[in-house]
Design brief:
Radius of gyration: 39 Å
Helix content: 40-55%
Strand content: 15-25%
Number of helices: 16
Oligomer: single chain
Structural class: alpha+beta
Strand order of the largest sheet: 2-1-5-4-3
Order of helices and strands: HHHHHHEEHHHHEEEHEEHHHHEEEH
Largest sheet: 5 strands, antiparallel
Number of strands: 10
Distance between the termini: 112 Å
Number of domains: 3
Length: 368
């Protein structure tokens, strides 16, 4: 039925537009009068787009007059009848026109409803395919939507999150920590303005540490708060890499303070060698291949074979790799040299980030 009414309307529209054009009218003039684009008028005329009931009323009024009579002419055109031969004043015609108008309204309402559903499905499909998170709350700050990407990052079910009161997220998930995001959330709600957050440290409901960036965007209607849209990007890998580079840069700067005649090795908090100098390499004849492995334990094994008391050396070497305070010990090599090893823990903002191990050849001092 909707298709028939659309066909009837387009037939009448083209019939009367032709008359309108003969009087000097154009699509552009008609579009300006209606406040729409000329391309939209063209699409309605060729039937590729369906006009709303309101627009159909306006077109009928401009090009002809009463909407019911406009459709009647379209129906006569469809049936091959003379479009201008219309019986005026008939009661049946008035009833028929009313029925046609009501039927058309119902069909138009169904069309709009269908378009709304299709639009909702379209945008929901896009949101679900995003490689970032989207979380939506209502005016009571209760979560009612969360996309799959964020669910996977959080490591909990949709059922566990939907219905959660955002200000009580920490209580709802004992392993989670969201203090800084909640601070931005509350600020956006209070000011009714979007709040951006960068590299915020969080612990997800499943207990995973992560770094997030994104926006808290309040939904506002006539200055009334209606909920929040939170967009979330995962910055964990980039942030951890940046922190690691900052630590290594800081450690290397510390190493540069050592003099050229002292052997030094910089080890990060995971006990990985990140820098050494040529004195260290030459002091023990370290092969380049071994040094490139950045493994302090393998380096210790290499030096062990040059030491007189190997058991004592190995026991103290492992203490060096585990101490968080200054640690000094000396040992004798088979070739007669005596080495002093000084391990200096390196802290940044109160956190252990590595060790600077200094090696001195004190052979000359031994007999003094």
């Amino acid at each position: 039925m909707a298709g028939d009414l659309q066909e009837i309307f387009v037939l009448a529209l083209n019939y009367f537009f032709k008359k309108y054009k003969e009087k000097g009218g154009t699509q552009n003039k008609l579009a300006r009068r209606l406040g729409i684009t000329q391309s939209y008028i063209s699409a309605v005329l060729n039937g590729s787009k369906s006009a709303s009931l309101e627009l159909q009323d306006q077109l009928a009024d401009i090009l002809y007059g009463p909407y019911e009579e406009f459709l009647t002419i379209g129906r006569r055109l469809k049936n091959g009848l003379d479009p201008e031969f219309i019986i005026q004043g008939s009661q049946d015609k008035g009833v028929e026109g009313l029925i046609n108008r009501l039927s058309h309204y119902v069909m138009d309402h169904q069309r709009i409803e269908k378009q709304l559903v299709e639009t909702k499905d379209f945008y929901e499909a896009i949101v679900e395919k995003l490689q970032s998170g989207v979380l939506v709350t209502d005016e009571n700050d209760v979560i009612y939507y969360i996309n799959n990407w964020l669910l996977n990052k959080y490591g909990v079910s949709r059922e566990a999150l939907v219905g959660t009161h955002v200000p009580e997220m920490d209580k709802a998930f004992s392993k989670g920590r969201f203090e800084e995001i909640l601070r931005h959330y509350n600020s956006a709600k209070e000011n009714l303005e979007p709040q951006e957050f960068h590299n915020v440290a969080v612990i997800s409901p499943s207990g995973q540490e992560a770094y997030r960036s994104g926006w808290c965007i309040p939904v506002v209607d006539h200055r009334e708060y209606r909920g929040m849209i939170i967009t979330i990007g995962d910055m964990t890998e980039q942030t951890l890499l940046k922190k690691k580079l900052e630590e290594e840069t800081w450690l290397m700067r510390a190493a540069m303070e050592s003099t050229d005649w002292v052997g030094w090795v910089i080890i990060d908090k995971t006990n990985r060698i990140i820098k050494y100098n040529s004195v260290y390499k030459e002091m023990f004849g370290m092969p380049e291949k071994l040094l490139q492995e950045n493994n302090p334990r393998k380096n210790v094994e290499w030096v062990k074979n040059m030491v007189r008391d190997q058991d004592h050396f190995m026991r103290l070497s492992f203490q060096v790799l585990n101490q968080e305070k200054k640690f000094i010990h000396e040992y004798d090599l088979l070739d007669g040299r005596r080495i002093r090893r000084v391990s200096l823990p390196l802290f940044r903002d109160g956190e252990l980030v590595g060790r600077n191990i200094l090696l001195y050849d004190i052979t000359v001092d031994k007999g003094s």
